[in-house]
């Protein structure tokens, strides 16, 4: 049985121990931040009993996506770079639209 698991354990050691450095740590922190956007959205939706996308979702998307974009550039992964790069444009645009909406609402109350 140990003959079956030995190659798997060796793979885990190489991938998670030997390759561990500050860039991998950044990648994990970035992924955790990016994942928080789903947690925030889920909690907000559960509280409202309907689908809700709070502004924090877009900020977690931007910060997590930005760090993942940097990580992808360092890893020189063109698929990851393209995916995160396009996402950043969408996150910034959504935050811009929210800011404009808030400005318009403030102007109406004045």
Quick rundown:
Helix content is about 90%, strand content about 0%. It is mainly α and about 110 residues long.
Question: Can you give a write-up of this model?
Answer:
By secondary structure, the protein is an all-alpha fold. The chain has one domain. The chain is built from 4 helices and no strands. The chain is elongated, with a radius of gyration of 19 Å. The mean pLDDT is about 95. Pfam families: LAB_N. It comes from Hoeflea poritis. Keywords: Membrane, Transmembrane, Transmembrane helix. This is Lipid-A-disaccharide synthase N-terminal domain-containing protein.
Helix content: over 70%
- Tell me the β content: under 5%
Number of β-strand runs: 0
Main beta sheet strand tally, sense and closure: none
Q: Helix and strand succession?
A: HHHH
- Give the averaged pLDDT, no decimals: 93
Quaternary status of these chains? Answer: single chain
**Alpha-beta content class:** mainly alpha
Number of helical regions: 4
The low-confidence runs, each spanning 5 or more residues with pLDDT under 50, are: none
Rg over CA atoms, rounded to whole Å, is 19 Å
First-to-last CA distance: 74 Å
Shape: elongated
Number of domains: 1
Transmembrane segments: 20-40, 52-73, 79-99
InterPro entries: Lipid_A_biosynth_N, UCP028440_lipidA_biosyn
Domain Lipid A biosynthesis N-terminal: 26-97
Protein name: Lipid-A-disaccharide synthase N-terminal domain-containing protein
Set out the fold topology.
Layout: H1 2-18, H2 22-48, H3 55-75, H4 78-109
Helix pairs in contact: 2-3, 3-4
Keywords: Membrane, Transmembrane, Transmembrane helix
Transmembrane segments: 20-40, 52-73, 79-99
Protein name: Lipid-A-disaccharide synthase N-terminal domain-containing protein
